[in-house]
């Protein structure tokens, strides 16, 4: 059956309430490679309970609905879906421990045409469950590669952030560990393509790939250290497109341009000349 756009955009999903502890907060940071230098205070703040801070991209793994794409009324070919874009607005720093509540909604479904797929725009506001305070807005795009031509609207689409022309003003690098995907999957996404060499090869990858949201987090840390002096509370918005797979153990290079409080960026693997994050945009307060 084709995509059921009316069902998707009118779907009232059940609220997701999630409690997390300091152990979860530290594990998330460790899964991004933070703590590789245990004497660096900019890393230690995320992995040690004394003065512990949650890493700013942690909301992307919290209060996420499970199994929404396989709902029989949605009409999605979920095996052909990929996560293509991630957007994050941080209203208040995430506490190092707490209980959160969020409801995910499908904001729009765009028909790119027969053979060209469809775009699903999803979002969720994450609130503190006790106080009701809005902490973060997590939104993103799912690309349903096999579901175009269902007769839905062709727009408006969310346009990618344009990168400045010319050479980047900043070049930042981070090494990653070979076991990074095995750690990051403990945050909730246990897709075996990130752990099983056999399944990765069946998907035409030479070895397991890193979660796109892990690459997204590694790049965020580079930007925070360079443009916010390592202060995570200064990151207010952070968006990127996933453009190619990244393999654990590779070196991530970020090229960035800064104008006032706005940062444009992309991330790539120099050894393979592959851009893995593109059209990046971040807002860092002074």
Automatic annotation (TrEMBL):
Q: Which InterPro entries match?
A: HotDog_dom_sf, MaoC-like_dom, MFE-2_N
Domain Peroxisomal multifunctional enzyme type 2-like N-terminal spans what residues? 19-145
Q: Mind telling me which PANTHER family this protein's record contains?
A: PEROXISOMAL MULTIFUNCTIONAL ENZYME TYPE 2, PEROXISOMAL MULTIFUNCTIONAL ENZYME TYPE 2-RELATED
Q: What is the organism of origin for this protein?
A: Halomonas cerina
| Protein name stated in the entry | Acyl dehydratase
Domain MaoC-like positions: 165-268
Molecular-function annotations in GO: (3S)-3-hydroxyacyl-CoA dehydrogenase (NAD+) activity; 17-beta-hydroxysteroid dehydrogenase (NAD+) activity; enoyl-CoA hydratase activity
One Gene Ontology term of the biological-process aspect is: fatty acid beta-oxidation
